[in-house]
## 1
Amino acid sequence: MPTPVVAPYGSWKSPITTDLLLAGGTVNLSQPWIDGDAVYWIEGRPSEGGRNVVVRLANGRTEDVTPAGFNARTRVHEYGGGDYTVHDGVVYFSNFADQRLYRQRMGEAPEAITPEAALRYADAIVDAARRRLICVREDHRLDDREAVNALVAIPLDGGEQTVLAEGYDFFATPRLSPDGRQLAWLTWTHPNMPWDGTTLWLADMAEDGSLINQRAVAGGPAESIFQPEWSPSGVLYFVSDRTDWWNLYRLNGGEAEALAPMEAEFGMAQWIFGLGTYTFVSPSDIICSYTQDGRTFMARLDTRAKMLTSLGVSGTLLYPSHSRIVAGNGFVVYGAASPTQPASIVRYDLATGDMDILKRSTDLTIDEGYISIAQPIEFPTENGLTAHGYFYPPRNKDYVAPNGELPPLIVMSHGGPTSATTDDFVLARQYWTSRGFALLDVNYGGSTGYGRAYRQRLNGTWGITDVDDCANGARYLVERGLADGDRLVIRGGSAGGYTTLRAITTRDVFKAAASHFGVSDAEALAKETHKFESRYLDNLIGPYPASRDIYVERSPIYMADRVRAALILFQGLEDKVVPPNQSEMMYDTVRAQGVPVAYVTFEGEGHGFRQAQNIKRSMEAELYFYGRVFGFEPAGDIEPVDIDNL
């Protein structure tokens, strides 16, 4: 075995290049579906400009369903999800460019079944008996008012749409009973987000297909309901956090009956449609996934005995990714990943316990000598509390650092902020660790996966609790000799970008920072963002405009003169969630202070980068920036970045 080369941290040459990340058909996998013997899923392809393609696997053959020129992606809530459904071999999908619903039979061109109008659709199910789709519709036809959401029915061949339920700010998850006689769905109203409080509704289906006897059966403003689902025998199940943890329940005589009470999360933040953590494989057996202590597990739940049994998965270390599980005849299909294996669509045989990988997000194989394994950590934070994260030490079998040198540390703050990071294998993390960076991915207070109380730590304290936890996580590693206290970096996107900017305007901990489409003006976000998040900040900061003084106080743009950390900003110029002026204002102000700063923009990108060349450029530009700031020479041929005040 060759002797490792001695070289400074950050300068190590790695086989995990940006070209490698985007080569080999690297795709984002989501939304598995089963129709008869066929398995479907969506592939998000950076190499095709981020286009979402419905893919079908049948009779051992995989083929694209969505033809060139179409992109199966809805913009309901802006974040989408629930982009398609399948019934009897026919795919119904929302097309990104015009937001119309299309019907597509295999081998035929898609046919539009909704009109050209400012209407968006998501989360569709097929009501076969009445030959119609039931879905969420978001109406943008009136420019002078907020979009109007409703549940609607749409004939499978197109035609007049019928509003089934309306009067609430948001709708999600319509689910038809097996006999077609009842419909369940979720609603919530401003200022709640779906993880704050949702209501589960149940209604009977009249002869004409309208809904009658609508009644609320669970939930409310202080209880979050997730994934209503019917058993094959017609019993309504759902996930609720009424006991602080998202646990499984069923409706029994009008009352919610707990099935497997435990300090674990069977639900998640509904940022997108189409999520699901459990599925029925018989009238009394559920296959489910849950998160506990930062890990995700898979289990079988006997609903008669109320017994939860962990599933062993032979021959692989893949775990459920906690996004959607769907059932076939004797098997389930779901998205999976592990600390050492990339995201995949997998098929799990219920009789044998064998798992087949149907599709990997990448066919690339990386020598384990370049892979850093996540280490779950807990560390003390403010007010005597504990916060969570995953620590990745630098690892590259070809290199060692000079004696006495400690690695620079990148602290990652996830988006949301009501979301969570996981220990799933992500090549983009290994891009940093294989070059000699240590990395801490923080699940700060407010993150999901640790119960409702932990999730609500951020209420009223966004920009404080998250920043404290990121800073304290960095200090924790420095105190243990695992990172260089003079080379601490914080980075994040969207809400994580806000945490990043708050950290360098209110703390003297980090020496460099990278904000990817991050919020710099909380007040502007409250006034300008889309409907889904338009009242999100009421709970995180306070009602606007009554709490305007707090918004100003928490906005990094008004404290940019305090920035001493070198800063690089990345921004999509078509971002509707965090408009470009947020990054532009921050850049101008920091540059005027004489602090090293760079601003990199991308045309044609919205909230998050989907195009391969832009993903490549943003990662390489960030590495180049750290090299210039910390005085090391990154390996490889990287296009320089213009840095002011360096």
## 2
Amino acid sequence: MTEQKPSRDTAAGWLRRVKEAERRGELLTAYDLASQALSEHPGDLALRHRAVLQLARAGATRTAARRFAELGLAGDAAIEDVAALAARIAKDFALAEQGAARTHKAAEAAALYADVHRRTGGYYPAINAATLFLIAGQDAAARSFARAALENTGGTAATSEEAYFRLATEAEAHLILGDVEQGRAALARAASVPLHDQAAFATTRRQLRLVCALRGQDPGILAMLRAPRVIHYCGHRVAQGRLTDADMPALRQAVDRWLAERDVGFGYGALASGADITIAEALLERGAELHVVLPFAQAEFRDVSVADGGSDWVARFDACLARASSTSFATEDFYLGDDSLFSYATRLAMGLAVLRAQYLDTDAEQLAIWDGLPAAGMAGTAVDVAAWRALGRTGHIIAAPARAVAPARAPAAKAAGGRTPRAMIFGDIKGFSKLRDSEIPRFVDHILGAMARALEPHEASILFRNTWGDGVFLVLRDSAAAALCALDLQAAVDSLKPEAVGLPAHLGLRLGAHTGPVYSQRDPLLRRDNFFGAHVSRAARIEPITPVGDVYVTESFAADLALQADLPVRCDYVGHMPAAKGYGKLRMYLLRRTPAGP
């Protein structure tokens, strides 16, 4: 992702920028901005509160709880917004549980909100207490706090934001009380407020969907608060015989109609001549966000995938890129004839689209301009459409004229072997360097032995492994396999009691994981196949910034996991963090397991 450029500002100025990103539903950017602001204004309460709020809204509950403590917000718990944020984090922990644990923790979080309401009389803590008591099975308390919330939503709202939240609270309270028609009417009034705050809408939808489920009510009433859709887009290039310039006006009209019908607000894809640029221009013209994902270095992509369409397409490429909300790269290195980079970039764009849809509580769909014919090589629109369909997600085809398949793009100078996307794990044991020689055999037997046993169930997915001292490097077939392997490794070391075998108690494992295109070649020193490339170096820079006991992963890893619907893991955003050894800033996520069950 493109980084936020440093710029000094007042605390109030920073807060405005944070809230603007928040309104767009850019929760991760909002958190990054708040963190940057706190480096200049570390004591500002509003910025500290807003930073943690973004993490909570993004679902990064564990990280939100840690930052709440680190930023000293517990000392400001007498303030309603801060106290309510502590209760919200407790609520999110409760909702992540199942069965009796969920009921118990929901009651605890409800009590926190109830205490805030008793001190402040606010409708926000009252309605949250009501919903949590409903989850905890305490119907009388739920109804009591719902009525208390309704009693406190009257009066004239000072801002559109306040007006919206009062009406949303009324809707939630009526639904808890079983009055669906009153709830529907309040929700309709809330939807008419000119707020344009996607994060607020997402929060409301999640909360009301929960209430509807608990009360057995039709969640269809939430459709009036539907967020703009997120799309992954793709299609044929011109200058390959699949599309011509003459085809584009009619295709553009079809794109405009579909984007309007589906109310699309966010698009993720590449920027090749033809379909990509046409869809990107349509997105920008309707005020939607454009997020460009390129397979390799920008200048070379322009030469390989845009310039052969003509100078007009180059100018349109530059104009779209200048207006894009973000630009990401499968690799910032050269093409080298590796068509696998196109497929990897497509998967990255798909994953980023799904992640964004999850944060916004909306749908992710695909729009493809496709002639229905097979791809001319290992990458192409047919491949992209098939990959999206394999995910079981909704897609739409705008039919392009079916012409003879053109020859595959002229290959660039291709490096031996080519690059293939792989998942990589680096780890080390903190405290190893302080071990005495007499302790090393016990470390090898017990710590490395436990790690070896944890790897045994993953043997089929492990392509390479290496150790040096306490360091471990693993290459696995894909992100899903690497995620489960990393969590099993961490659990194995966490379960040990080093002091029981004569080792220091402070020993702990930290792991970093990344997915990217790498070379596989025979290593003349090791005399076996090994993995090389810029993305191996990137993966190695993550582990040193990872806290002991955690697994940190890059955004490309998290995006790939987002495409795995049934995987019992999730990624919580932790921030735009500087990688080790001056490798630049990377968006990092905390990998964790999700509870079993529905």
